[in-house]
Specification:
Helix content: over 70%
Strand content: under 5%
Shape: flat
Structural class: mainly alpha
Order of helices and strands: HEEHH
Distance between the termini: 132 Å
Number of helices: 3
Strand order of the largest sheet: 1-2
Radius of gyration: 54 Å
Number of strands: 2
Oligomer: single chain
Length: 181
């Protein structure tokens, strides 16, 4: 604590410390410290305000420069227009330029119709392919169902034959057991 007061213009004569928490000031010292603090805060605020105003002024100046360039460009174009507006070729250009756009629009429309025709042809081709594949799929499903039905029938027939063979051999076995050799 003492080192802070040693650096200040108050020197050590204006205070006395007891432990770390207590500082005893002489009469008038506190008011001088508050005045120093107020002066320093006021100076800091003035500097901050100056920085803010400078930044805002630079932004405004940059904006004005851009506006100045735009105004000069517009003025130059108006001067050029005023020079050529009575020329016959300028009148011709003004009348023909919309027609050029119509030609471009017709060309774009032609391209779009060609694209549409090619897409519809492709769609038709894909639809035919889809129906062909659908019919092929149904045919294969019917074939699989028939094969499954046949295997079920064949399994029943095989089961009957196995049962008949078992009965035959079991009857033969009984016959051999009843007749001695």
């Amino acid at each position: 604590m003492e080192w802070q007061f040693e650096e200040s213009p108050m020197r050590c004569a204006g205070f006395r410390s007891s432990f770390v928490r207590n500082v005893f000031l002489r009469a008038g010292v506190l008011s001088r410290l508050e005045a120093l603090r107020d002066d320093r805060i006021q100076g800091d605020l003035v500097r901050l305000q100056a920085l803010c105003r400078g930044c805002l002024a630079r932004r405004k100046f940059a904006k004005l420069k851009v506006q100045d360039v735009a105004i000069r460009c517009i003025q130059k174009n108006i001067r050029k227009f005023m020079q050529v507006r009575h020329w016959s070729w300028w009148r011709l250009l003004v009348r023909v330029s919309p027609l050029l756009n119509v030609h471009r629009m017709e060309e774009e429309l032609r391209k779009k119709t060609d694209d549409l025709e090619s897409l519809t042809a492709r769609l038709d081709r894909l639809e035919k392919e889809r129906t062909r594949l659908k019919q092929e799929n149904e045919r294969l499903e019917n074939k699989i169902a028939f094969a499954i039905g046949m295997t079920g029938g064949i399994a029943r027939v095989i089961k009957k034959y196995l049962k008949a063979i078992f009965m035959f051999f079991s009857a033969k076995a009984r016959d051999y057991t009843t007749y001695p050799l």
